[in-house]
């Protein structure tokens, strides 16, 4: 009886682990465990073509005033850092 309980627990744990791994890998096709940042349209929750301080989170919120190049209190898509910044090292050294 004890073996059945241990086996049931092990199977339940393995199933939960697999489910967790599957949900972590379903993040928009990103590789290496890094989550893809949201697009401008995803962050622009009111669809006005600008990002207010209320619409941004994380590093964008922290650097909002630095990124707001014209000082109008909102970010436009051209004021945001491009996703390619910081990716220039990918693929180098491979032959």
Written overview of the protein:
There is one protein chain. The chain has four helices and no strands. The chain is an all-alpha fold and 95 residues long. It has a domain of 42 residues. It is elongated and about 70 Å long. The C terminus is likely disordered.
Give a brief rundown of this model.
With 95 residues, the chain is an all-alpha fold. Helices cover 38% and strands 0% of the residues.
Features:
mainly alpha; disordered C terminus
Draw up the topology in text:
Elements (H helix, E strand, L loop, with lengths): L1 H24 L14 H4 L15 H4 L1 H4 L28
Rg from Cα: 21 Å
Largest sheet: none
Strand content: under 5%
State the end-to-end CA separation.
Answer: 57 Å
- Class from secondary-structure proportions: mainly alpha
Indicate the percent of residues in helices: 25-40%
The number of helical runs is: 4
Shape: elongated
Element order: H for helix, E for strand: HHHH
Low-pLDDT runs:
17-22, 86-95
Q: What's the rounded overall pLDDT mean?
A: 73
Number of strands: 0
């Amino acid at each position: 009886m004890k073996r059945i309980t241990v086996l049931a627990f092990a199977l339940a744990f393995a199933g939960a682990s697999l489910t967790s791994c599957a949900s972590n890998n379903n993040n928009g096709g990103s590789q290496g465990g890094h989550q893809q940042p949201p697009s401008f349209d995803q962050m622009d929750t009111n669809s006005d073509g600008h990002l207010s301080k209320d619409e941004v989170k994380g590093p964008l919120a922290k650097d909002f005033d630095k990124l707001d190049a014209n000082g109008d209190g909102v970010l436009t898509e051209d004021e945001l850092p491009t996703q390619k910044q910081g990716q220039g090292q990918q693929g180098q050294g491979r032959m």
